[in-house]
Design a protein that fits this description.
Layout (H helix, E strand, L loop, with lengths): L2 H12 L9 H16 L9 H12 L10 H14 L4 H27 L2 H4 L6 E4 L6 H9 L9 H5 L15 H15 L3 H4 L11 H5 L6 H5 L3 H7 L5 H17 L9 E3 L3 H11 L4 E6 L2 H19 L5 H23 L7 E5 H19 L7 H14 L5 E3 L8 H7 L1 H7 L33 E3 L2
Parallel strand pairs: 1-2, 1-3, 3-4
Antiparallel strand pairs: 5-6
Helix pairs in contact: 1-17, 3-5, 4-13, 7-19, 14-15, 15-17, 16-17, 16-20
């Protein structure tokens, strides 16, 4: 056991907060799935890209996947799963099922692009894109914007199932909401904490994460499985083809709605932090809203989310490893964002703080709408309904986590992000680190010090 793992184990055993064990239903599902495989009732699919491709072709009767770029990240991911992820039976079943689903939907998408050429001929208005690390408040900001009917937003079922089946007709019966609802129900049964960490429903506003997963791309896979070699490989690749496919799928979603709308899409996913150059190549006129949060909170909340997901798919989840991995991943997200952000025209970007959203969300949104050159008044009633509903949902349920559970310390984490915290004045008012983030001669009370501070070891709804 390495040092970080020992620290995490000690924290779990002696601290006030223990890492939650996985649901007993996961263990039961593993036993049942092994029995189904052994009996032949559920054939076991090999983690083999070619075999899964052929299976998807047989299931759909289609052959063209479109841009074959996705096969390379998929191959790297499959190899990492075999060598590093220590998948249990349920984890392997989920992985192969996910990959075959991706392939079926790529075949369906290409079918629509070929048979309905007007889909790709229709332009997209410059989108409004929320950019921030995992667990930095991007969901709240995105859903506030999605409450404005002057924007388009993806719904959960559309990001989980972006491509309708070939028999689908716009305005007709759509099987996707029910399919997405069943998937969400299964996830919540296997891991009820996911409903607290990221509450959603089939018709709720959702990020475009699933549109990137359609190209086997992104941190979603690293948050689900232990696949460090895939992560290191992806960090050095150009993501432009994945984002080009996102743009194609946005057009397909709009067409499937029977819509000729020219409204701008409201988008967000933390993957953009790593891929801003690719994002801006595909959406060069996008307007970006950057949100910033105390990195100690971001890392702690990210680790908690990853732990809850990884324990489903593997019996060997390592809290200490997760802590080090997501400290690295968060640092990389922020470092790359800062470099890429500096190259984006100031007229295309605005910065907001998580703690300001907590203190006065409406004041922050007024700033955002001034940046977008839009009147906020028509959007306020919808935003207020969303805020009221969210407060009601979180009245009794909270996302609890502690950095120490993952072998990490809040002050040490903040040291790693000193330049970033100084640039955006992110030091919580109640923190007392051994460094001063402000330059000499600027030791005034921070502009945001009056906002209610939140410690790195805390209860959070984000």
């Amino acid at each position: 056991m390495n040092i970080s793992s020992r620290h995490a184990l000690i924290a779990v055993m002696t601290g006030d907060f223990s890492l939650p064990p996985r649901s007993r239903l996961v263990s039961a599902a593993n036993v049942v799935m092994r029995g189904l495989h052994k009996s032949g009732l559920v054939p076991e699919i090999d983690l083999d890209v070619q075999e899964m491709c052929e299976l998807a072709r047989r299931q759909t009767g289609l052959h063209d996947f479109g841009d074959p770029w996705f096969l390379e990240p998929l191959q790297v991911l499959v190899e990492a799963l075999e060598e590093e992820a220590a998948l249990n039976t349920l984890g392997r079943f989920a992985a192969t099922g996910q990959f075959v689903k991706i392939m079926r939907e790529r075949l369906w998408a290409q079918h629509w692009f070929d048979s309905e050429p007007e889909i790709l001929a229709e332009p997209l208005a410059p989108p409004v894109i929320v950019v921030g690390p995992m667990r930095s408040g991007t969901t709240r900001l995105h859903r506030l914007l999605a409450a404005d009917e002057r924007f388009e937003h993806l719904r959960f079922f559309e990001t989980v199932c972006p491509a309708p089946r070939p028999e689908f007709r716009p305005g007709g019966r759509d099987r996707r909401p029910r399919e997405a609802g069943r998937l969400l129900s299964t996830v919540h049964r296997l891991n009820p904490r996911t409903a607290v960490i990221h509450p959603t429903g089939p018709f709720e506003p959702e990020e475009e994460l699933g549109l990137l997963v359609a190209s086997a791309w992104g941190m979603k896979h690293e948050a689900q499985w232990r696949v460090p070699s895939y992560g290191r490989w992806a960090e050095n690749e150009d993501a432009t083809p994945a984002y080009q496919h996102v743009a194609r799928l946005l057009r397909l979603v709009r067409w499937a709605r029977g819509s000729t709308s020219r409204k701008p899409w409201v988008l967000k996913t933390p993957q953009h932090m790593l891929d801003l150059p690719a994002l801006m190549r595909v959406f060069p006129d996008a307007r970006l809203i950057f949100i910033h949060r105390d990195p100690a909170r971001v890392v702690g909340s990210s680790c908690s989310l990853v732990w809850n997901q990884m324990t489903i798919h593997s019996d060997k989840a390592d809290a200490g490893w997760i802590g080090q991995q997501w400290l690295h991943k968060t640092k990389l997200q922020i470092d790359r964002m800062q470099v890429a952000r500096s190259r984006i025209h100031p007229g295309q970007r605005i910065d907001v703080l998580y703690r300001d959203m907590d203190a006065d969300w409406l004041a922050v949104m007024k700033r955002v709408y001034a940046f977008l050159d839009m009147d906020i008044a028509p959007a306020v009633p919808g935003m207020e309904r969303y805020v009221t509903a969210t407060r009601s949902e979180h009245r009794w349920q909270h996302h609890r986590y502690e950095l120490s559970s993952f072998g990490l310390d809040a002050e040490a984490v903040r040291h790693r992000f000193e330049r970033y915290m100084h640039a955006f004045d992110l030091l919580p008012a109640d923190a007392a680190p051994s460094f001063d983030l402000r330059p000499a001669g600027a030791r005034k009370v921070p502009a945001h010090a009056s906002a209610q501070a939140q410690p790195a070891s805390a209860i959070s709804a984000s």
